[in-house]
Amino acid sequence: MRLGVLALQGDFREHLLAIESLGVQASAVRKPVELEAVDGLIIPGGESTTISKLIDIFGMLSPLREFAATKPVLGTCAGLILLSDKVSGALATQQLIGGLPITTERNSYGGQLQSFEGQVDFVDGMSENVAFIRAPRILEHSEVEIVAKFQDEVVAVRYGNLMGASFHPELTGATHLHKLFISSFN
């Protein structure tokens, strides 16, 4: 198994290191041919409008949509926004990959100065300290499986082969979300 991390902008290096620390091969993905070489993909946090523009520039929108239609994809923070079917606060020109039947709101936990670390509780009983940086909030999630909560608020979800989280696990050394994603291959 080889996991890819979309490496156009954002904290892709940290995700690559987290995956490799779990004994799984990982590679950066910037081109459609690199996407074809991986079994699953992580879309990292960063700035969702910038990532969206770069996805368009690199000719990755259609390949990403096709990939996400059948293969495992995890989106964290900005990646969650890009996988969402609806986004409150998105620019009219922002392209979404879609597939997660949720509505998210950009920067809902506050701007850069309101960033924080907090303990998320996974439904399987695990808890980990993660980072919320200009984090999106999941507003509507009625069709998805809840994966984790922060203070009774849903912050991670799964729908078929897609997972999304409002937070950054990779910045605090948390790996439980990555483990859950990797287990979806079994």
Number of helices: 6
Low-confidence stretches: none
Rounded Rg: 15 Å
Strand-and-helix sequence, N→C?
Answer: EHEHEHHEHEEEEEEEEH
Question: Can you give keywords for this protein?
Answer:
alpha/beta; 186 residues; 34% strand
Outline the structure in words.
The chain has 186 residues and is α/β, with parallel strands linked by helices. The protein has helices spanning 12-21, 32-35, 48-57, 61-70, 78-83, 176-183; strands spanning 2-6, 25-29, 40-43, 73-76, 84-88, 100-105, 116-122, 127-132, 137-140, 145-150, 153-159, 162-165. The model has no long low-confidence stretch (mean pLDDT 93).
Short summary:
This protein is an alpha/beta fold and 186 residues long. 26% of the residues lie in helices and 34% in strands. The strands form two sheets. It has a nine-stranded mixed beta sheet.
Give the topology.
Elements: E1 2-6, H1 12-21, E2 25-29, H2 32-35, E3 40-43, H3 48-57, H4 61-70, E4 73-76, H5 78-83, E5 84-88, E6 100-105, E7 116-122, E8 127-132, E9 137-140, E10 145-150, E11 153-159, E12 162-165, H6 176-183
